[in-house]
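Contributing new records

If you add data, match the layout below exactly. Sequence lines come first and carry their own label; structure lines follow with theirs. Keep one chain per record. Anything else will be rejected by the validation script.
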Amino acid sequence: MNPLSSTIAAVSTPRGRGGIAVIRISGTDAVSVAGRMFVPAGKTDVSGLPERYAAFGDILDPDGIPCDTGICTVFRAPKSFTGENMVEISCHGGISVTETVLLSAIAHGAVMADAGEFTKRAFLNGKLSLTEAEAVGGLIDADTTEKMKLSGGAVRGNVSREIKRLSDSLLDVMTALYAAIDYPEEDVGDEGERHIGEVLRTVSGGVKRLLATYKTGRAVQSGVKCVICGRPNVGKSSLFNRMVGEESAIVTDVAGTTRDVLRETVSFGGVTLRLSDTAGIHTSGDAVEQIGIGRAVDEIEGAELILAVWNASEPLTGHDIELIGRLKDASAPVITVLNKTDLARGLSGEDEAQIASVSGDMIRVSCETEEGIAELASAVAKLFGSDKLDLRHDAVIWDVRQRTQLMRADAALDSAVAGLTYGDPLDAVCTTVEEAMAALSETDGRGVNEEIVNEIFARFCVGK
């Protein structure tokens, strides 16, 4: 059965009590299905409604009995989200009434939509590229401003336009190469080969720049596992609270207050930090505290970013020195934070030099006055590149699938440039250019297989 031959329906708003709910119907028979379950408050029926006109009327249950009043809006193909005939019926947002309206759509000829099927149909009907469709899911799930900007920019075509621009340039090169291969008597000459090489190098540079955005895109979309560590009473929990923006962690003058790992997800420095506040690392005879310290060490070993906190009002202790040694072996980047700078300075120049040996980034903060928190955010932004990108307008990738295909394109382009430079036959160069073109097409969904498409849209919620 053709997956686009059925008319589908689903509730597109969150389940539960609310002011309104929206039931979405899409497919060839969407208007006729709606016509059997909605009676406009006028002489016309649904089939006679103008496009994008919000008509008030009665909504009928599966037995044809009015169950609610609401609004019906018709979107005719191809001028709809899915590219098909589409109807949206808005009813009151009660749990029972919403379910009744959906069941009415099913009773009158529609079938239940699968997860992500509306967006999948939009992709299959050419209304969205694959990167734009993936971004729709990201936009729905966005829980920070940065995620919203990233996904919103991709929905508006930032990534798709860049990939199309690169693909169009490769298409011009392939046309020239095909002509040279088919008509060898028409030698492209040195000038022609130089032009082809320049275009390939330009496209290769564009692919590399797009690949370079993955670090930022991933840090925004998936988040960075960030651990706050240090010995007891250096202000780890105070820093955690400042970054979270509320008093999530208990702060006292008693050493060892934090005994377990506290976790929050925060938007900080233009990226998403999956933040962990850990127990102070030191020697303890308390069995419970030892467990917390062990977990802190585990967090450091699994971190993608470490914020190492020191008390700037006291000289380094043995536990500080021990932590410095541990951090020098850490695989994750480290930002050192000198806290309590509102108090008299206690660190000597030699102490600060030892701390600086852990990381080049040393930020002075006061969690009491908030001094230095903005500088810390800037250091995080610089580390993950969010200071150089405009998420609303720049092409930024975030998905492993996108990155994998771009890496394929990058490798093929490098081979093509090298082949042209070292005088390889033009048909061999053309083959590698074709590989790059195919990889770019798969990045944006023009050459992707059905299995991958199904896997992507299965992640979506029903109704989208």
